[in-house]
Amino acid sequence: MNKYFPQSYKNGLFVNLVNCKNSIFKNLGSDYIKYIRKFSLSSKHITDKLPLNFRWIGLIKLVFPNAKVIHCVRNAKDNCLSAYKNYFIKSGNGYAYDLKELAQFYNLYSDLMNYWHSVIPNFVYNICYEKLIKKQKN
After folding, report:
1. What pTM did the predictor assign?
2. Distance from C-alpha of 78 to C-alpha of 86, rounded to nearest angstrom
3. What count of other Cβ atoms lies within 10 Å of the Cβ of residue 26?
4. Inter-axis angle of helices 99-119 and 76-85, to 10 degrees?
5. How far is CA 22 from CA 17, 28, 116, in A?
6. CA–CA separation, 101 vs 37, rounded Å?
7. What is the DSSP-derived secondary structure letter of residue 13?
8. What are 4-55's pLDDT values in tens digits?
């Protein structure tokens, strides 16, 4: 991120994106597409299921204004249990190993998703996980 936002990205947080030029967002998007194409040259759609992606929805909207974000909504208890029982290789998911922190994190995630829906309506599409697994298409 420092490549694109050297003055705005400090300690993992964006300080000021308001003054960024549109060219920065376009360049970031182009570089991301080049990077992701290394994994598949022929795919029409990209799926990135990292647990912390919800934090970047505002930036995704700036970088890929025509993108559609699919938010797979799951029962809160099932979601937390899934995170708790998994081992995450990368750092940043330490909250998943403490039940109190996990509950707090889930509530923050839920609040942030509600925020995204209010400020950028029709950008994030919710799909119910339980319904999805019951009605799969082969």
Report:
1. 0.79
2. 12
3. 12
4. 130
5. 10, 10, 21
6. 36
7. E
8. 666 555 555 566 677 778 888 899 999 988 888 888 888 887 777 777 889 8
User: Encoding tokens for residue 129?
Assistant: 């996980």
The 10s digit of each residue's pLDDT in 44-57 is 877 777 778 898 89
Give pLDDT tens digits for 68-94: 899 999 999 999 999 899 888 877 788
Site of tokens 């797979």: 72
Ramachandran category for residue 133: left, alpha or beta (phi over 0 → left; psi -120 to 50 → alpha): alpha
The Cα 41–Cα 110 span in angstroms is 34
Nearest CA to 70 out of 93, 53, 87, 86 is that of 53
DSSP state of 45: S
Copy the structure tokens of residue 28: 């970031």
Instruction: Look at residue 13 in the predicted model and tell me its pLDDT.
Output: 57
Helices within 38-137 (DSSP H only): 57-63, 76-85, 99-119, 129-134
What region, left, alpha or beta, does residue 119 occupy, with left being phi > 0 and alpha being psi -120 to 50 degrees?
Answer: alpha
Q: In this structure, what token pair is assigned to residue 111?
A: 């609040």
